[in-house]
Amino acid sequence: MTQKEVIRKIVDSLTNELKAFDFQPASLKQGFTRNTDQNIFFFQLIAINRTIIKTGAKGFLIEPYIWVNVRKVEKYYRQITINKELKRDDDFVTIGNSIANLLANPDGLYKSKNNTLELHVFEEKDVSDVADKLLKAFKQVALPYCLKNDSVGVIDKIVNSNPGEEKVHMMNDNYRVIKGAIAAKLNNNPALDKIIQIYERQIIDDDMYNAKEEWEKLKDILPTIN
Questions:
Q1: Can you tell me the mean pLDDT for 191-213?
Q2: How far does CA 70 lie from the centroid of its chain?
Q3: Is there a single domain that holds both residue 118 and residue 206?
Q4: CA–CA distance, 160 with 150 (Å, rounded to integer)
Q5: I need a labelling partner for 213 at 20 to 30 A (CA). Which of 48, 60, 154, 174 fits?
Q6: What distance in Å separates the CA atoms of residue 66 and residue 207, rounded to the nearest whole number?
Q7: Please, which pLDDT band fits residue 54 given cuts at 50, 70 and 90?
Q8: CB of 135 within 8 A of CB of 53?
Q9: Helix (H/G/I), strand (E/B), else coil: 87
Q10: Which helix H or strand E contains 50, and what residues bound it?
Q11: How many CB atoms lie within 10 A of CB 216?
Q12: Which residues contact residue 130 at a Cβ distance below 8 angstroms, ignoring those fewer than 6 apart?
C-alpha cells in the first residue's frame, strides 16, 4: 500500500465516528476538519516511511496531530505574514502539535520532543487496529484539546505564560512570538509591554530573521488590534 492508500483507508474507517463530533474528512489535510465561526480544528494523520531491518518489510508510522485555528488571531496574522504559501483559511494554524508530544509535555513547556504513539501499518490487517487506537487518541486527547483551547484568552495564557520558554503548543518559534503578541493584545493582557520586550529580545538573540520582518509589520498594526 502507498502512503495515500493507507491514509485513505484509515480516514474511511474513522469517518462515521468523527462525523458524530462534526469533524469532516479533508483530503488536502490528510485527516479531518471542523469549522465554526470562531475556529477551525484539524485532526491530521501523517504517514512516515518505516522499514523493519530484519525482514526488510516496508510500512508506515502513523502519527496523529491536532491543530487549532483561532480566527481572531489568524485574522491579524494574515495581514502581516511573509509566507506566500499560506492562502486558504485552513492554511493558518494557531496552536497544536502531535498527540504524542502533547502527552509528553503536560505542563505545556516543550522539554521532550520527537515522541511517538508507535502506530504502525505494515500490512492491510494493521489498519483496523491503528484506526481503533487513533479514535481513542482523538476522543481522549484531540477533541478535549480543541474544546479547551478555542479562545483568545486561552491562547494568551498558554503561549505568553513564561514567555521566554518554548511551548509544546507552538512548534514554530516565529509563530510563538508573533501570535503570542497578537493574542496578548486581543486579550488586553496587562503584561503586554513586558511580553513585547521579551519577544523583541528573543528575535534578536536567536537571529529569527523571518520573525523580525513580520514583527516590524505587526508593530505597525498593533494599535488597530482589538
A1: 91
A2: 11
A3: no
A4: 16
A5: 154
A6: 29
A7: confident
A8: no
A9: coil
A10: strand 39-51
A11: 11
A12: 10, 62, 119, 120, 121
